[in-house]
Amino acid sequence: MKSYKDLEIYNLSLDLFFQTHSFSLKMPNYEKFELGSQLRRSSDSINSNIVEGYGRKRYKQDFIKFLVYAHASNLETVNHLFKISRLYQELSEEANQLIQSYDALGIKIHNFLEYVENNWRT
Description:
Blueprint: H1 8-24, H2 29-32, H3 35-55, H4 60-87, H5 92-119
Helix pairs in contact: 1-3, 1-5, 3-4, 4-5
Protein name: Four helix bundle protein
Pfam families: 23S_rRNA_IVP (PF05635)
């Protein structure tokens, strides 16, 4: 692994960030700057924490800490999407598809976190 760009969780989270950003812009104007903004920030945080953690990979505990932050931001993103799916019926189907994708990403982050905890050598 030469770069964080080699991590599957990085690539998935980046792709989901772009999808989620576009999705958030479909919300009513007044909501784009409330719940939409929270959604964009939490989605971005997943990817950013993976990158920052990788940048600290030399320090195993720092790497773990940032992967935990990424996992927590993933859960936050799912929560925002759930609220959107309930508030805006017209966005429900797309929100639920994103939730499924973030659930799958969450499993991958969790598995990578366990790998780092048990196998990472600094």
